[in-house]
């Protein structure tokens, strides 16, 4: 589960991480109110208005703007809220903005030049341990830094027995070239960030940029946080932060029926039991000359109700020109699934696209017979290769 | 021979009397697996499915000589169950549970260091040695005895591969579902290594998916140490970047996570890589001919 910047910053602050302060607002008037409040509390003279959507690169799409007086706060907030913000990480239709974060201006002039760094905490899958990844190249897309200047990216692995240690925090601060007050602040920042990551069962905390202000403070200016879905049961407060308006409506609906669905851009829908076989089925669609329109795992109980629900979800995508059902029946019997497909088909009425049903495993022959004798426009197959050939045939 | 489990394994079920545990324990017994009992704290001394119930895993080890455990405990308690099995000296721990928090698995991984236990999974279909022992949730009839070892991150795709291998006139020595989570007990490389050392296994099917570097690590090991042919497939060639495809670990983050990158390195290391999942069995038959 992903969080908004304002939610992520709230969590960081609770753990003692210094942040760029701000308040969330739903419209221009609210933005002005919180801007005033922010100035009282922080003394900020200007404000940064930041669109709150689950995607990075917001500045490039015009979703982050500076306001130099309260009239500008109102007009900028009103112009950003309601816009369909297109960034390098969104689809070309963009994402509708519902909220903005009114934040303090932290790039004020002072004794030193402000500097930006990159820092994240995440799982290193190769070692099964958490690690810090950080760089002197902040405020930029870290993947392009990794590609062009990999020597500027550092990592620090955390021993789960003892957590992050002082020497590690100091090493990070030294590698970032810090000294004096900024060095001390960074050490504190590293400890607090790790605490935020661990106590909230996160799978990613990415702070880009971490800012050294002109008066040597170290603060988080942006924050991208992903939480471990499997651990949400022990964080009911975090689970409540879920914003389903940021998710694909069809995917949310599918999840309500325990269908694991991911929408894709292709023309052949698929319905499969098991995640690995579902990915393999997408691959075979591609090899047969189509493009997968979705990933859909119906799980272990492929009964008539679930099959019908899955069909309806797949058919809600107008790009779908054919549907491949691929079930390997083990404990679930294929003849039952076949009957489910037939019942679902009849219940939906006329399905406008060809359907290929491949049932393999327990009672596969009986299942094929049920499909073949149903009188419906359904191609049946037993071998995976037969299913692939059938996809090729219907697309031709 | 075979690997991990055989007809002499003494198997217990943790989470024995729960719905999942009961259903699959029945299936395992029906397959002929040597199930010697199960563990449900608080119900020790009783009997379930004609087998003794123990309060703790160490009781099961002491009283029934258990050396393999299969876990059907809910996600919130599964890490504890794995560590209990390791503490009791269980040699092979198979964890079926899906949805264990990553933080718990980091703790488990750390706990297992220096213990004499091998963890398979979590979030996996288990292990089967045909005609000897089914320690998992797979449909037993698909797996006919033979000389091909299968290691896979997925459930139904493992059954698919086994079915093709059997239909190609070969059979299975042991099939190991290692699981689709970001942190799993036994890696692809370790499973491959077991098969390379197993005299009964003549060829290996290695099925991976997007995310992580396990297939690449296995491929590099095979290049140096491989003495048997390996057929490989990577699921998710068409998966988009940044989206989790069902399994918690099946996500393309960086460019090394892609199916394309994995298939390339596997091919370079001498693995017979198939682009189509429909060609796994036929390719294995060709390379063993």
What does this structure look like?
The complex is a heterodimer of chains A (396) and B (289). Chain A has 396 residues and is α+β, with helices and mostly antiparallel strands. Chain A is 37% helix and 24% strand. Chain A has 13 helices and 18 strands. In chain A, helix 2 packs across helix 3 (70-80), helix 5 packs across helix 6 and helix 10 (304-315) crosses helix 11 (334-348). The model of chain A has no long low-confidence stretch (mean pLDDT 93). Chain B has helices spanning 19-31, 57-64, 75-87, 102-112, 156-167, 188-196, 214-225, 259-268, 280-288; strands spanning 11-14, 35-39, 47-48, 51-54, 68-71, 92-95, 118-120, 126-129, 133-136, 145-152, 172-177, 203-209, 230-235, 272-273. The mean pLDDT of chain B is 95. Classes of the chains: A alpha+beta (396), B alpha/beta (289). The interface between A and B is large, with 55 and 62 residues.
Q: What's the short version?
A:
Chain A is of the alpha+beta class and 396 residues long. Helices cover 37% and strands 24% of the residues of chain A. The model of chain A has no long low-confidence stretch (mean pLDDT 93).
Series of H and E elements of chain B: EHEEEHEHEHEEEEHEHEHEHEH
Largest sheet of chain A: 6 strands, antiparallel
What is the oligomer described by this structure?
heterodimer
Distance between the termini of chain B: 22 Å
Q: Hey, roughly how much beta strand do the residues of chain A contain?
A: 15-25%
Count of individual beta strands of chain B: 14
Counting helices, strands and paired strands, the structural category of chain B is alpha/beta
Please give the radius of gyration of chain B in angstroms: 18 Å
């Amino acid at each position: 589960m992903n969080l908004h910047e304002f939610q992520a910053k709230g969590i960081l602050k609770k753990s003692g991480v210094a942040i760029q302060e701000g308040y969330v607002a739903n419209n221009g008037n609210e933005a002005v109110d919180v801007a005033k409040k922010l100035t009282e509390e922080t003394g900020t003279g200007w404000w940064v208005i930041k669109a709150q959507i689950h995607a990075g690169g917001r500045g490039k799409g015009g979703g982050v703007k500076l306001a130099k007086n309260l009239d500008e706060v109102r007009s900028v907030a009103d112009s950003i809220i309601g816009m369909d913000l297109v960034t390098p990480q969104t689809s070309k239709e963009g994402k509708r903005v519902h909220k903005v974060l009114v934040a303090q201006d932290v790039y004020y002039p002072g004794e030193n030049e402000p500097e930006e760094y990159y820092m994240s905490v995440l799982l290193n899958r190769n070692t099964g341990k958490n690690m810090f990844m950080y760089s002197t190249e902040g405020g930029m897309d870290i993947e392009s830094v990794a590609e062009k200047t990999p020597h500027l990216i550092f990592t620090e692995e955390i021993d789960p027995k003892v957590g992050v240690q002082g020497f590690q925090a100091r090493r990070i601060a030294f590698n970032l070239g810090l000294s004096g007050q900024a060095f001390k602040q960074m050490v504190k920042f590293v400890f607090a960030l790790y605490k935020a990551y661990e106590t909230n069962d996160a799978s990613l905390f990415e702070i880009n940029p971490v800012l050294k202000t002109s008066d040597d403070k170290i603060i988080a200016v942006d924050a991208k946080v992903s939480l471990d879905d499997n651990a949400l049961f022990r964080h009911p407060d975090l689970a409540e932060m879920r914003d389903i308006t940021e998710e694909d409506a069809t995917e949310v609906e599918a999840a309500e029926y325990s269908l694991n669905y991911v929408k894709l851009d292709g023309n052949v829908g698929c319905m499969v039991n098991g995640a690995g076989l579902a990915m393999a089925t997408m691959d075979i669609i591609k090899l047969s000359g189509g493009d997968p329109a979705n990933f859909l795992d119906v799980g272990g109980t492929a009964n008539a109700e679930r099959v019908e629900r899955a069909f309806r979800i797949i058919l809600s995508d107008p790009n779908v020109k054919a549907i491949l059902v691929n079930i390997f029946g083990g404990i679930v019997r294929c003849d039952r699934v076949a009957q489910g497909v037939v019942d679902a088909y009849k219940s939906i009425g006329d399905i406008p696209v060809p359907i290929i049903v491949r049932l393999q495993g327990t009672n596969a022959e009986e299942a094929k017979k049920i499909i073949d004798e149903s009188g419906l426009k359904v191609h049946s197959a037993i071998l995976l290769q037969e299913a692939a050939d059938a996809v090729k045939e219907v697309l031709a | 021979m075979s690997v991990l489990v055989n007809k002499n394994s003494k198997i217990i079920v943790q989470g024995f009397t729960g719905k999942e545990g009961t259903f699959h324990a029945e299936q395992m017994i029906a397959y002929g697996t040597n199930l010697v009992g199960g563990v449900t704290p608080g119900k020790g001394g009783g009997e379930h499915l004609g087998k003794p119930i123990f309060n703790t895993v160490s009781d099961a080890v002491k009283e029934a000589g258990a050396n393999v455990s299969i876990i059907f405990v809910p996600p919130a308690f599964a890490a504890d169950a794995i560590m209990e099995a390791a503490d009791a000296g269980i040699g092979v721990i198979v964890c079926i549970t899906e949805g264990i928090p990553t933080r718990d698995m980091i703790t488990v991984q750390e706990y297992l260091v220096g213990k004499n236990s091998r963890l398979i999974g979590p979030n996996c279909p288990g292990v089967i040695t045909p005609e000897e022992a089914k320690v998992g949730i797979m449909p037993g009839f698909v797996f006919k005895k033979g000389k091909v070892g299968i290691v896979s991150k997925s459930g139904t795709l493992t059954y698919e591969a086994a079915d093709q291998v059997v239909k190609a006139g070969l059979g299975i020595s042991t099939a190991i579902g290692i699981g689709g989570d970001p942190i799993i007990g036994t890696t692809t490389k370790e499973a491959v290594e077991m098969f390379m050392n197993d005299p009964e296994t003549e060829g290996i099917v290695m099925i991976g998916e997007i995310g992580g570097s396990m297939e690449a690590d296995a491929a590099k090991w095979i290049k140096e140490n491989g003495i048997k042919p390996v057929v490989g497939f990577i699921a998710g060639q068409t998966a988009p970047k940044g989206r989790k495809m069902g399994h918690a670990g099946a996500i393309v983050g960086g460019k090394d996570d892609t199916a394309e990158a994995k298939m390339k390195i596997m091919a370079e290391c001498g693995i017979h890589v198939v682009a189509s999942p429909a060609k796994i069995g036929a390719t294995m038959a060709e390379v063993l001919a």
